[in-house]
């Protein structure tokens, strides 16, 4: 069971890359340079018709959508215990948070970064203003979720919600109010950034600007 991940440093592929490293299972990583437009080639679009990263080859078939890939990997590797089992008491909270991150926060992030590319350049500022509002609402909601002092989002264990949430929090680092400025998000972020698998995914993707020891202001995603 070998996977092949198509990724771009710091992009939506990062959560999947991080999870694969955390699970310590064999996989290959193929760089798609989205700044150079490698996601728009015919060859890549045959794997991912949207022309986006990530793509994960699973049993020889190309699959997309970061949140879906995290859930799929958790289902295929139950021994890794990175998601509550079906029927368990934490399952509903896990589903709700995964869908919230994928369905509300991630699209707002897409609008923030791609307002003038996906939409009309003339209306980009209005789209970004709405996106920023939605993103900050999400930090409020997630901050409240962690206010009881829990270490991870669901079930007291590291899991798919954490991979997705931390990746999205990282994307806010150059915004006016980054996730690190929320009271309960900051200690959570610092804890998760200290995990060996997070340090490793940063090293493999060549990322140095959002670790517990370095805070630069460069880059988009
Ligand atoms: N809903 C998709 C979004 C993926 C996405 O927007 N990826 C961005 C990088 S963060 C991308 O591929 N951008 C290149 C482009 O749109 O041309 C997912 O979660 O996988």
TrEMBL record:
Superkingdom: Bacteria
Residue ranges of every copy of the GST C-terminal domain listed in the record: 87-210
Lineage: Bacteria, Pseudomonadati, Pseudomonadota, Betaproteobacteria, Burkholderiales
UniProt protein name: Glutathione S-transferase
GO molecular function, one term: transferase activity
Domain (GST N-terminal): residue spans on this chain: 1-81
Claim: Cytoplasm is one of the keywords in the record: no
Record key words, sorted: Transferase
PANTHER family attached to this UniProt entry: GLUTATHIONE S-TRANSFERASE FAMILY PROTEIN, GLUTATHIONE S-TRANSFERASE-RELATED
Source organism of the structure: Caballeronia mineralivorans PML1(12)
Classification via PROSITE patterns: GST_CTER, GST_NTER
Keyword Glycosyltransferase attributed: no
């Amino acid at each position: 069971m070998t996977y092949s991940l198509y990724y771009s440093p710091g992009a939506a592929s990062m959560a999947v890359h991080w999870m694969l490293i955390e699970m310590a299972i064999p996989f290959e990583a193929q760089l798609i340079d989205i700044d150079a437009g490698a996601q728009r080639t015919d060859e890549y679009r045959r794997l991912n018709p949207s022309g986006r990263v990530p793509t994960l080859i699973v049993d020889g078939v190309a699959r997309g959508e970061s949140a879906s890939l995290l859930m799929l990997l958790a289902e295929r590797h139950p021994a890794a215990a990175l998601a509550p089992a079906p029927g368990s008491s934490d399952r509903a909270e896990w589903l709700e948070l995964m869908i919230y991150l994928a369905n509300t926060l991630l699209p707002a992030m897409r609008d923030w970064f791609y307002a003038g590319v996906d939409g009309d350049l003339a209306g980009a500022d209005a789209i970004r203003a709405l996106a920023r509002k939605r993103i900050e609402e999400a930090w409020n909601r997630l901050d409240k979720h962690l206010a009881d002092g829990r270490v991870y989002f669901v079930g007291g264990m590291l899991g798919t919600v954490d991979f997705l949430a931390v990746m999205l929090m990282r994307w806010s680092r150059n915004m006016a109010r980054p996730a690190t400025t929320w009271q309960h998000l900051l200690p959570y972020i610092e804890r998760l950034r200290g995990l060996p698998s997070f340090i490793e995914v940063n090293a493999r993707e060549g990322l140095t600007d959002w670790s517990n020891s370095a805070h630069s202001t460069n880059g988009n995603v």
